[in-house]
């Protein structure tokens, strides 16, 4: 039974296109030490998805180390989360090896790596792509991830120990795109699927999460404001905390049988062409 107010809202919606508010109801698993004993690096975690994942991993009992370029915000975030940090621009490939040496000293035996740092330059069309915008996105979203993963795998293989790598890709990597951001994520997915089976016998798992449009600086969507997103199946933006829940499962031993998988978090939007 509709109340008067609701009927008025529906009429107003029909007449003026005014849209009802969008609410998000999300559920969390109570922290239960699901990541106890894990030592996890999360790249690009001073805000956004990286921050939410690092916070959740810490709540689940892991020792976490976050990276980013801006020391001030990184330090503040690390204090809020209760984890350690190292300043690292992931595109500076020559600093990756010393970074792992320092991280090893601070964290001990690193078990998991989450390659999250990424940028999107949102070029409006093909002719807005410049050499700089192309290089910058390829360097950050693809090249850096390949060499960070390579160094981590070297470390794990030399120690003859198991490891777990999780990349944060994107739903756009599932589709053909006309911009470098999508090309980097498509290539990243190919990398994950192509390399995972080479290392599973050594105990190294490699997977990716591909979120749909999620609240963050990258999308300019603020979780405290309107969550409406026309292009998401749910018509609302996803929240970084939702991605963090899935990431926790992917780093936990409960997902030990998963490797080479792209976990697409968009309610099936990119599975087929007919909605
Ligand atoms: N939000 C979405 O809708 C969405 C959807 C699908 C996938 N993703 C992916 O999720 C990941 C996180 O994005 P977000 O939405 O949380 O964006 P965000 O709020 O802009 O955060 C990006 C993070 O990456 C870091 N970063 C960027 N360039 C870096 C570099 N060269 N070296 C080190 N850190 C760097 C940033 O830190 P500094 O700038 O301080 O260095 C920041 O911590 C990205 O890989 C993105 O492609 C996001």
TrEMBL record:
CDD domains: SDR_c
Organism domain of life: Bacteria
EC number, UniProt record: 1.1.1.100
Pfam families per the UniProt record, alphabetical: adh_short_C2
GO molecular function terms noted in the UniProt entry: 3-oxoacyl-[acyl-carrier-protein] reductase (NADPH) activity
Classification via SUPFAM superfamilies: NAD(P)-binding Rossmann-fold domains
Keywords: Oxidoreductase
Matches recorded under InterPro entries: NAD(P)-bd_dom_sf, SDR_fam
Family membership: Belongs to the short-chain dehydrogenases/reductases (SDR) family.
Protein name: 3-oxoacyl-(Acyl-carrier-protein) reductase
Species lineage: Bacteria, Pseudomonadati, Bacteroidota, Bacteroidia, Bacteroidales
């Amino acid at each position: 039974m509709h109340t008067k107010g609701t009927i008025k809202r529906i009429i107003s919606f029909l007449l003026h296109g005014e849209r009802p508010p969008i609410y998000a109801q999300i559920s969390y698993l109570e922290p239960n030490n699901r990541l106890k004993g894990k030592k996890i690096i999360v790249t690009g975690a001073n805000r956004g998805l990286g921050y939410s994942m690092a916070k959740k991993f810490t709540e689940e009992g892991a020792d976490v180390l976050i990276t980013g370029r801006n020391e001030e915000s990184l330090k503040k975030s690390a204090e809020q989360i209760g984890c350690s940090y190292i300043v690292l621009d992931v595109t500076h490939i020559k600093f990756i090896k010393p970074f792992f040496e320092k991280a090893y000293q601070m964290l001990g035996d690193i078990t998991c790596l989450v390659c999250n740092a990424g940028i999107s330059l949102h070029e409006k069309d093909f002719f807005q792509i410049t050499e700089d915008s192309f290089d910058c996105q390829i360097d950050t979203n693809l090249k850096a991830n390949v060499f960070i993963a390579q160094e981590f795998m070297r470390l794990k293989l030399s120690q003859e120990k198991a490891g777990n790598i999780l990349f944060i890709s994107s739903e756009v990597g599932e589709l053909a795109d006309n911009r470098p951001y999508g090309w980097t994520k498509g290539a990243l997915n190919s990398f994950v699927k192509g390399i995972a089976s080479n290392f599973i016998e050594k105990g190294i798992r490699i997977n990716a999460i591909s979120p749909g449009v999620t609240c963050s600086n990258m999308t300019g969507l603020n979780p405290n404001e309107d969550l409406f997103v026309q292009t998401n199946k749910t018509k609302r933006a996803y929240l970084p905390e939702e991605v963090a829940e899935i990431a926790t499962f992917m780093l936990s031993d409960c997902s030990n049988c998963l490797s080479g998988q792209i976990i697409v978090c968009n309610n099936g939007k990119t599975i087929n062409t007919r909605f």
